[in-house]
Give the backbone structure.
Amino acid sequence: MEKIGRNAPCWCGSGKKYKVCHMALDEKIRRYALEGHIVPDRSMIKTPEQIEGIRESSRRNVAILDAVGKMIGPGVSTQQIDDLVHDMTLELGGIPASLHYDGFPKSVCTSINEVVCHGIPSEDVILREGDIVNVDATTIYKGYFADSSRMYCIGQVDEEKRRLVRVAKECMERGLAMVKPWGFLGDMAQAVNDHARANGYSVVVEIGGHGVGLEFHEDPFVSYVAKAGTEMLMVPGMVFTIEPMVNMGTSEVYVDDDDEWTVYTADGRPSAQWEITVAVTQDGYEVLTW
């Protein structure tokens, strides 16, 4: 971490002197680094102005998923969901981040039953009674990114699937409860994984959460199978997603060879996921998307 003079302008761009802005935070982070912990660099620490920008994007992101919840149901195609997300994002002054991201062809991901994530909407994919589906939307507004997903139960869903959906949300909530400054991402991961395993489920290892806000995917990678006391130090100003993918069976997954996007459970059993964007604050956390 580059040394800055006490009276020099702070690196964050606030215009304040370093000694009254980020100096104390930097010194505390440096002490953890000297103890051998993984610590964030300055690019991972958002300013209050940046967090406000992410907050504004998040309000639009939440409104879009609220609208999905009102229209989704048996007989709805996943393309209809994509159309709603695309059109509403533009109406709200935003940009759907998924569209053309690394070649992804749609504005939202729709992942049904055994699809873990990155399901591609299609006119040919019709939601049926008993399905569970994850709708994952990322919104760009004035250059700021907000990312979240929700599970929707379509019509009458059997208790086995409903329980998976419920426990997946509880896993996300257990992880959120562990978010606090000067804790570790591994604290959150263990809380998630312990709850999933206690309920007979598994958590996907290869795919996790990520930093977000100024870009779609930023550092750090957020694991949900790590141990407490490990992984990166959480500090005020960090913004990342909590989005564990909880499988009814094996944690193993594979990617569709044809579209090179859709991720399936290896055993064909259902998967569920909830995703929120969260900011670490001085005394805990702020949920930006739900």
In short: The first helix runs from residue 23 to 34.
